[in-house]
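#struct-pred
JK: can someone run the complex with phosphoenolpyruvate? inputs below
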Amino acid sequence: MNRRYRKTIIAGNWKMNKTLSETRAFADAFKAILPKVKTCDVVLCVPSVNLQGAIRAFKDCRVSVGAQNVHYEASGAYTGEVSPAMLSDLGVKYVIIGHSERRQYYNETDFTVNKKVHAALAAGLRPIVCVGESLEQRELGVTMELVEYQVKAALSGVTAENVRRVTVAYEPLWAIGTGKTATAEQAGEVCSHIRAVIRGLYGARVARSITIQYGGSMNGSNAAELLAQPDIDGGLIGGASLDPEKLLPIIEAAGQEQT
Ligand code: PEP
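RT: done, C-alpha cells with the ligand placed:
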C-alpha cells in the first residue's frame, strides 16, 4: 500500500449470493462492527437486482455499493442487460469489469472489457478492471506478458484524466475461490508490473495514483502480508466478503500503520 499517493480500496464481490433480506441483515451486522476511522474505502459489489436495496441499507455508513457487470451500450434491445446510466442513476459508484467468471462463462473478451470501461467512465462510474492468468499460463511463464496485454487492451483509448478513476484488480485465476492464495511476492511482482505498464502508458504521476488490488482467496490471515507489498493497494474479495466477521479483519489489515 502507499496511502500517500493513492486510495486503499477493499472491495467485496458477492457474485450470485444474498437475497435482499440477507443483504439487509449483513448491513445491520456490518455497520455495528465497522470502525469509524476511515483508512480505506470499502465497496460491496452486489447482484444487480439488489443494488437499490443495498444502497439504502448502507446509506448511513461509509460503504459504497458497486455492480458486478455493465453493458457497453447506452440503451437498446439487449434483453437482461443493465446500462451504465442505469447504475449511476441509482447511486452506484463502482463496477467490476472483466471478472474471470464473466470472461469464462459469458464470453467477455478484452475487446468488450475495453468498451465497457469507456462506457462506465462516460457515465461517471469507477471501473474495477480484472486481469489475471490461468495456472497453465503461469506454468508456461507468460504471466507478465498476458497481464500486460490485458491491461493495455482494457485501457486502450482511455485518457490520462479518466484513467485515474480506474482500479485494476490482479486476480490469478488459480487463486479465485480455491483457497490457494498467491504468495505476497508473486502477487506483489505482478502488481508492480501492472504499475510499470501504466507508467509506460501514462507517465509516473498517473501510475503512482492508480489503485491496484490483489484478488484470490484473500482473507483475514493473509491480507496484512499481501497489503504490505508496495504495489498492492487493496483487495477484491469473494468468499470472505460474504460474512461481516470475515471481512472486518481485512479492512483492519488495510488500516494498519505502514512500515
Ligand atoms: C473474486 O471473486 O474476485 C475472488 C477473489 O474470490 P475469492 O476471494 O473467493 O477467491
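RT: quick notes.
Residues 43 and 238 are 12 Å apart (CA to CA).
Residues 13, 171, 176-177, 215-218, 236-240 surround phosphoenolpyruvate (CB under 6 Å).
JK: thanks, will look after standup
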